[in-house]
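Fold these two proteins, one after the other.
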Amino acid sequence: MIVFARRAGLVATMILVSACASLNDDAKNVRFADAKDEANGLRHCKELGPVSARMMLSDYEAENAVKNQAAALGGNVVRRTGGILDGFVSGVAMKCGPIATEPLMAASRPVSCSAGRDCQVKWSRAIEWLQQNSTWKFEVVTDVLITTAGPGNTTKPAFEITKAPTELEGTDRIQIRVFCSQGVAGIFGCDPPADRLTQQFVDYLK
């Protein structure tokens, strides 16, 4: 009888473990937040509520239980707030959309120049400034447009400089746009900061 009781207990334990290890259909789409989420500052996510599970046998079982809880709240991502050291897998259930990849942009105030010699000099200075300040190679260089490669998923800004006529005849407008990766700028910012670069550009042309 004692042996039977032990075997029965073992079977019960195995059934319990199997139940804990399984994920319901919704929970199969739940994941833990990764480095890209953190780099984006989780700005693409909405918090739904706390989730937690004690690690009875393994962290794997607890993680699955947490995913089930997150799915029940309508979440698809779990941001960890605790782990092995406190005996729990705990976190916050979140509903997250895709991380935006479009770059953030900062534009300088326009710099005016008189068509002819004045604009030629300032356009040359714009190229000089870009050579000194861009990490990226030039992609387009014409009399009215300069662009660089980048920014990729980095903190290093990319640039676009344009020259266009203004409403005032004989006067052109030169302007720089600084592009930063939205994926990293949300938490780390541009390096150097975009607003500082646009100001430096305007000062250099003047």
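Now the second one:
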Amino acid sequence: MTEPPRTAGNGAGDDDRIWALIAHFGGAIAMFVSGGTLGWPPPLVAYLVRGRESPTVRAHALAALNFQLFWSIIGALGWVLGICGSIFIIGAILLGVPVVATAFGVIFGIIAGVKAAKGEYYRYPVAPTIVK
């Protein structure tokens, strides 16, 4: 994904910056609250509400959406496989997967939100393009 276009000054306007913050910080908060499974709705809302009007919000929301969706899927699979296999040792190990997904979603969502607050774009690590 390419960086969002820059305008004069240090990046986006106030409305665009707020929606970018909703995408990043909202995803981090949702990952924490949901145990690593629902980090994707806040970036999706930002994308649907403001993404068509603003290339800046679109770029931030898509980056957050792809990252949070990927780690939410991993977290959900970890929960399902961990609970289904909980009678075996492998199930206990798999229950650690949602913890890792939650940590990744929260930590990198906060880093991206801080960058967005400064008017900068953040490229998430390990974020395959799921939504274009």
